[in-house]
Amino acid sequence: MPNRTVFFISDGTGITAETFGNAILAQFEMSPRHVRLPFIDTVDKAHQAVRQINHTAETEGKKPIVFTTLVNMEILKIIQDTCQGMLLDMFGTFVRPLELELEIKSNHRIGRFSDVSKSQAYHDRIEAINFSLAHDDGQSNRDLEQSDVILVGVSRSGKTPTSLYLAMQYGLKASNYPLIPEDFERQHLPPALVPHRSKIFGLTINPERLSEIRNERRPNSRYASLENCRMEVAEAEAMMRRSSIRWLSTTTKSIEEIATTILQEIRPERLVY
Q1: Deepest in the core among 27, 34, 60, 76, taking most CB within 10 A?
Q2: Number of other CB atoms surrounding residue 240 within 10 Å
Q3: 3-class SS at 41?
């Protein structure tokens, strides 16, 4: 299939259009050129977007693919009537049939948080991000009881990015603790974590992959040596088994897959969408 230019147009950030559009495009063997056009929230901006799309169509001799999540009907009509691309109106595909089925008119809200100053969900999300940053890598034992989930594992096994993803995407207060040689010598979890065992989830990783990651950070160190990585991973997995902690290997999994597994296992009471 020939490659194309793909436009993602939104009157908000465009994150929804791009995420959904990329999920669809992933089904095809192609390497499209991505063009993001966020905040298309005026008639003038809509006409500018159309000119860019049409210029691309004329230059490349192929219809650009245009994913939109436009809420403003006047702006959407300009795109629909005048652009020379293949238009995929995602909100129109799903919102209008839902209005008919639910017999409720959509509020046509732009973006996830139309007014952040009045959105409790948005403030909860920011609070979760700040909490997760403050409790990254065992920096603080304070308020651990407020954690929705506590991730444990050896250094560089994926705890920090997973914690931040859970905070940013779901508003969860995620703490994480590295398992270190002192813990292996004691052969039990850090004492601060023991009262919160039900919230703990373990991450492990293939030692060879761990050594590669650590060598990027501290090359030719004992910390990054394959022998040390094998020892740490084996000890960490043994500790998690002894403590009956649920865990998974992050070696071949994306952050999204890791987070989804954690949510299925921990089932926190509070989720923000």
Answers
A1: 76
A2: 21
A3: coil
> How far is the C-alpha of 159 from the C-alpha of 180, rounded, in Å?
14
| DSSP-assigned letters across all residues of 77-98 | HHHHHH--SEEEEHHHHHHHHH
At 239, is the secondary structure helix, strand, or coil? helix
Rounded distance, CA 231 to CA 240, Å?
14
CA distance linking residue 137 with residue 190, whole number of Å: 13
Task: Please provide residue 221's backbone torsions phi and psi, each rounded to the nearest 5 degrees.
Answer: -105, 160
CB 44 within 8 A of CB 65: no
How big is the chain by its Cα radius of gyration, in Å?
Answer: 24
d(CA 203, CA 268): 18
Cβ-based neighbour number of residue 226 at 10 Å? 14
Which tens digits make up the pLDDT trace of 92-151? Answer: 888 888 888 998 888 766 665 555 556 777 788 889 999 999 999 888 878 889 999 999
Tokens of 115: 């007014």
